[in-house]
Write a structure and sequence with these properties.
three-stranded mixed β-sheet; about 475 residues; MgtE N-terminal fold; CBS-domain; homodimer; Tetracycline Repressor, domain 2; mainly alpha
Amino acid sequence: MSHPLFTPEITLMLAEANAAGLREFCESLHPATVAEALDSEFTPEQIWEVISHANIRTQASIFEYIPPALQVEMAEKARPQMGQLLTKMSHDDRVDLLKRLPGRVAESVMRLVDEADRKDIATLFSYGENTVGAMMTTDYAWLPATATAAEAIDQLRAQAPDKETIYYVYVLDDASRRSDGSLAPRRLLGVISLRDLILAPRHALVRELMETDLATLRYDQDKDAVAQLFARYDFIAAPVVDDSFGLLGIVTHDDVLDLVQREATADLQRQAGVGPITGTYLDASFWMVWKSRAFWLGALFVLQMGTINVMAHFESDLERVAYLMVFVPLCLSVGGNAGSQAATLVIRALALEEIRTRDWLLVFRRELLMAAALAAGLGVLSIVRTYFFTPESVLAKLPPGFFWNLNWAITFSVMGICLCGAVIGAMLPLAIKSFGQDPALMSTPFIATLSDVLGIIIFFNFVKLFFF
Amino acid sequence: MSHPLFTPEITLMLAEANAAGLREFCESLHPATVAEALDSEFTPEQIWEVISHANIRTQASIFEYIPPALQVEMAEKARPQMGQLLTKMSHDDRVDLLKRLPGRVAESVMRLVDEADRKDIATLFSYGENTVGAMMTTDYAWLPATATAAEAIDQLRAQAPDKETIYYVYVLDDASRRSDGSLAPRRLLGVISLRDLILAPRHALVRELMETDLATLRYDQDKDAVAQLFARYDFIAAPVVDDSFGLLGIVTHDDVLDLVQREATADLQRQAGVGPITGTYLDASFWMVWKSRAFWLGALFVLQMGTINVMAHFESDLERVAYLMVFVPLCLSVGGNAGSQAATLVIRALALEEIRTRDWLLVFRRELLMAAALAAGLGVLSIVRTYFFTPESVLAKLPPGFFWNLNWAITFSVMGICLCGAVIGAMLPLAIKSFGQDPALMSTPFIATLSDVLGIIIFFNFVKLFFF
């Protein structure tokens, strides 16, 4: 997949106004390659100049692969061309673009689009963000149930140039009207793959060939459902229906892959206490990144202040064993680490629908056992550690005969904190989810902060137990 | 996508040995639905009994959707059926299955497979784990360049039943021999989509229709390259070639989606310091999960012991300001949180190829500025905090006139620790990557542990500066 560097060649063709060369460049390469060759080296005007030599459909394909920010700039620079291009773009991609354009630019571009397209755009615009509706496209291929296989292939030949995919063809009922007289979306009867159409006898009826056991999505479902459906059924596309099983659009595999990648990035960032970030690491606006990081750092800082008051509460009691404070960071870290592990496993299992909130008792039992087994392991490490490696300065201050008291205080603290951290880490995401919130809000640093406060209480209570 | 519960119906049909009903059940539903209806409620023997009534191809499709552990059990129970099924399974899925079977079972099943299939299996078996070769399948559709569009469609009709996909067809050169006389894989000349074939005039030559600007994968590339390629080009499948551009196989979109989901899970778990886990949250073996969590908890615990020695080193100096210890957990937490944020952003940007190790200076500058801006924000919070909310017990012990010394010691510590944490968090993954290791090894808890040790040094030095 290594591509030569096209920049010098394109610059030369632009200078010489070499129309044939530029057309050849646009038409012979994959549109993603053309977009990539153009997007970092040329101005919006130059990009328009290059692609204008290609067929309008090719222009639209190339344009779809240009990064969103540059698409917006290009649209602002050349509204008439943009209007033309819109009619040939994928129906989902053009709505994504219009959503990003400043209001007046979007309006002036929309004025250049014919009525059918305007209606289609308005419909797709209307679906709530994060719903399946906002992800779908309306340029699907369809057939009536009464066609024969041969007729179906002929019809697809006519539809192919304008459709997102013709590999899955949706079989629709006759048009019907709603009670208010408007046309309702045609009801989805079945689906047939192009593969099955090609394999079928010429005179077989679509009605007999089609698959009627349909896995569908609803337009108002959460986007997350899409990834699970595609992962299970290996679809190239899935139909989106309304309450009466009317076909509204389709979601295609490439958009699902993008969704899964984007969600994985968001989950990883949320887990580390970073708010949503748009754009790549180096492109993202400095202040936007600052805000999404500063918000969490600040919130965690304020929460963590709790540790000061809790420690201050014990500190006055424990002044004469102040040298034991050197063990505080170690003991606290155990809770944060065990809690992060548990929280991550539970959050991911919820996202992949491996567990549901009603499984909380199962999760609780499993985490309790797991935490106990982990605590046992750490307990052994802690005994070894305290026995062999306690610093001289601490031993010097230890009252005579208190060596094992120290050992037990540390070891029981470590074990207790591990247990609490893991159980809190596992249960909090489930609790948040059962309140209808996103369990991923329980980020790793958040769990660590909570478990620090608890950890201090546990630590000082064991110190009191073994030293007073 | 809600499916009725099939269990009672299937149980009844099994009891009545209702062959027609069971065949209908297997043939009329999506194989994923059939597999799902069977996999949790029936024994391996019963599942064989149910699917045996279907066409052998349908059996293979259903079997491919059964969870791996159950596939293994089924294969062990009925080796002759398994041998038959293998010949009809996707070439990649059957190799995945054979890799999971105990040696003697795999051998006895393989003996039932004909020689061509055995060779194909052996070849796919030979590719290194985590390479593109191990992900690909060899059942691709292909054509010679000399066919016409009409001939091509006829040939595809013959190939369709045995191919993973016929939507992308690979155009191959004539067979050639290697210097040792063996047949080399046919050279890849181009690719043509079924859509383009259907749109083309009947007599157009494949040679003229095919796309020759090919994005290919090499069999020995790392799997990670696949996700980026599919995300960029929206492929349904991509060809895998050897050094002489001979076609070895294809990778399909559904396997890429699975890969991306699995990798996202692994990344999230690694980020929280959990070793690789196979299986779902509730299915995974308790001791396997224990091992992968205990390893990291233990390793971090040992590392974190460093904090004891560092603190003990300062503690003896600072005995008379022991009450300042109450600020230690707060100050340390800042470093861990800022470090996790930076590490996560950099690790994800590396995974998505948004940055490379040679960009380290760019990343360093950006993180330094960002850390400074974040530290400034936290500094303000810290001043407000210390000014208004310092506990009475601490104020009581503070030497007269030292209130602002306290404020500055805490605030400068917080800012210094934030700066160090973020810069370490951003730089360590790049350093690890430049040594050829996986940057995701720099998990959040690992960064937090490192920054704790540094944080203690920073904190006590500022205390010394402002109190002595």
